Amino acid sequence: MDRVVNFSAGPSAMPLEVLMRAQSELVDTNHAGMSVMEMSHRSKAFEDILENTKHLLKKVMSIPENYKILFLQGGASLQFSMIPLNLLQKDHEAAYIITGSWSQKALKEAKKVGQTTVIATSEETQFRNIPDFSQITHKENLSYVHITGNNTIEGTRFTTLPKTDAPIINDWSSGILSEEINVSDYGVIYAGAQKNLGPSGVTVVIIRDDLIGHAPDNLPTMLDYKTHEKSDSLYNTPPTFGIYMIGLMLEWIDSLGGLKEIEKRNREKASLLYEAIDQSSLFYSPVNKEDRSLMNIPFKTDSEETDKAFIEFAASKQLVELKGHRSVGGMRASMYNAMPIEHVERLCSAIREFEEKVK
Amino acid sequence: MDRVVNFSAGPSAMPLEVLMRAQSELVDTNHAGMSVMEMSHRSKAFEDILENTKHLLKKVMSIPENYKILFLQGGASLQFSMIPLNLLQKDHEAAYIITGSWSQKALKEAKKVGQTTVIATSEETQFRNIPDFSQITHKENLSYVHITGNNTIEGTRFTTLPKTDAPIINDWSSGILSEEINVSDYGVIYAGAQKNLGPSGVTVVIIRDDLIGHAPDNLPTMLDYKTHEKSDSLYNTPPTFGIYMIGLMLEWIDSLGGLKEIEKRNREKASLLYEAIDQSSLFYSPVNKEDRSLMNIPFKTDSEETDKAFIEFAASKQLVELKGHRSVGGMRASMYNAMPIEHVERLCSAIREFEEKVK
Ligand SMILES: Cc1ncc(COP(=O)(O)O)c(C=O)c1O
Ligand SMILES: Cc1ncc(COP(=O)(O)O)c(C=O)c1O
Ligand SMILES: [Mg+2]
Ligand SMILES: [Mg+2]
Ligand SMILES: [Mg+2]
Ligand SMILES: [Mg+2]
């Protein structure tokens, strides 16, 4: 079948070049006489792959020396627990800014571990905006402040950060590698790989080294960041193929000019679609303008039936996975790095064409 | 480069047919117009893959209706914790049979959770045999009895099971799919995928349904078997590519005639190598004859230097990854399903040739 245009929120479209490269060496990777999937994780051949992936991530994200890169399993969902289990100190609180279902889930897991406090939430607007957190009274004894930097479901994104002495923890699952950020603004950045990084099954954790090593003794070994830092992500068998694929994705980003160029493209792509939505009298964006995500763009009409008809219309043009998350309804276009502007243009045309048709 | 003969203990050799099949559809899987890596885990296309993999595992292992199949992350190492966290009841003990480093690690994690008891160990023989557990006095209030069905490092394997009313938990990482077993003899069978199942990054858990749902309320959601059972392994984003690869591996096994035929081949392969080792006056097997593994075969000479020379000699014939685990030394040949008997014959020839040479 011809390649479809895939607006899935994750797992999501990958660059055709990257897929073809992986395909070409799937049976014999790096001339090792075996597939990357067959390599012992303790072999030189795989260690080179791991080092290369780490090196490229450091380069592309300009990660400072005092941060460690860990490749873990369990998805961002397991980080919801690992963060408080490792970082929430006795007689301290963990602060959360609640901007959608993912932050709610993160908070729920932290509550099982210790004291939490919500310092801002946009629940009352159904998460259509990033709440104001500028007036946060200075809190004592905060172990950290947790944010969801890009809200995959609600289509919002942080453009400023809370002023706090506590380390900021960023669930950056759907934002990572989409724009330049200053890593040293954060204590921990974590992300499930299945958007801009690679296939599902790898979780990347970028952690400031002073935050490692404070877990309680009875914590399961696998949940302690120290375990993975000490062994360079090789305590047990890591998801080797996923780490290899992340390396290929990063080489591709690097070859395009890095995150500066990627961010420029992503801003152009997002502007194009927001413009088409804003100009339309049929479709609208539910999201507050200043807080709009570059990656995940929900839009709607006033009728569920019309939404459904549009999704079918788009699918007939090979534009697929446009159904919005069930908690929001309508449509959602996720446009990660792999999506070229031409594909966004096709969606914009479909929007205009559909509006003409139903007028 | 030509394909090497890969004796790695895991990740390990995969069937060339399977790799070539995966390669042929890496960019467009099942005519979906996208790679399996790009499919939303909530899409019909991926659900078909998940169902197919589950269906084939059920068929190949003859898994009874009252068992659930879960595809998780974190490797067998995370199961070392999930088992006691889910199954070790208050005022009960978890019993362990200690047959090597993996069972020791499993026990260590259980001790963090609750009361444990070691009902047999072969530590005093450096794990060269499976200890006698026939005289186990009937214990009350056991939540389970944990065994390591095949000991990847030490090269031993269970051929009988303890007589107990408690559910038997089997770390079957390096034994799964290598021989027929009676699933209903066990409460839980778990395995990291990276030997006979597929690539690393997926953990398969086969669990009797009455054992699900007894976890304490404050357990992280991701560590509760109930979470994954309720959502059919789709609570969060599963390792989609790995699940797909396991499906291809199972199709291959099924096409060969299933586990009956696979076990026959594995017995032939193992006999061949044990014979060559036993007949040699230079090499010997450190393992008690009755307890010898079909998958992982350690062997040695009396000199570390000679071991090293043999490993180099073998490598010059493209027989690679023969270095024994550092805790055992010498050599280890892991011969999972993907290894044809011809490759074992090449190792046997190398053994004889080397012995001639150094005589
Ligand atoms: C912002 C965010 N956080 C967390 C998750 C959960 O990630 P995972 O499925 O890897 O557990 C997602 C998944 O899409 C997400 O978008
Ligand atoms: C018997 C056994 N148990 C546990 C493990 C650890 O598995 P993982 O690396 O998936 O955590 C291994 C790894 O090879 C093993 O052979
Ligand atoms: Mg969200
Ligand atoms: Mg509009
Ligand atoms: Mg062992
Ligand atoms: Mg001998």
TrEMBL record, chains A, B:
Listed GO CC annotations: cytoplasm
Major place of residence: cytoplasm
Cellular compartment(s): Cytoplasm
Domain of life of the organism encoding this protein: Bacteria
Residue intervals of the Aminotransferase class V domain: 4-347
Protein name (Swiss-Prot/TrEMBL): Phosphoserine aminotransferase
Residue positions binding pyridoxal 5'-phosphate: 76-77, 102, 152, 171, 194, 236-237
GO biological process: L-serine biosynthetic process
The organism of origin for this protein: Jeotgalibacillus malaysiensis
Entry EC number(s): 2.6.1.52
Protein function: Catalyzes the reversible conversion of 3-phosphohydroxypyruvate to phosphoserine and of 3-hydroxy-2-oxo-4-phosphonooxybutanoate to phosphohydroxythreonine.
Family the entry assigns: Belongs to the class-V pyridoxal-phosphate-dependent aminotransferase family. SerC subfamily.
Pfam families noted in UniProt: Aminotran_5
Positions bound to L-glutamate: 42
Pathway, per record: Amino-acid biosynthesis; L-serine biosynthesis; L-serine from 3-phospho-D-glycerate: step 2/3
Subunit field text: Homodimer.
Reaction(s) catalysed (UniProt annotation): O-phospho-L-serine + 2-oxoglutarate = 3-phosphooxypyruvate + L-glutamate; 4-(phosphooxy)-L-threonine + 2-oxoglutarate = (R)-3-hydroxy-2-oxo-4-phosphooxybutanoate + L-glutamate
Keywords, comma-separated and alphabetical: Amino-acid biosynthesis, Aminotransferase, Cytoplasm, Pyridoxal phosphate, Serine biosynthesis, Transferase
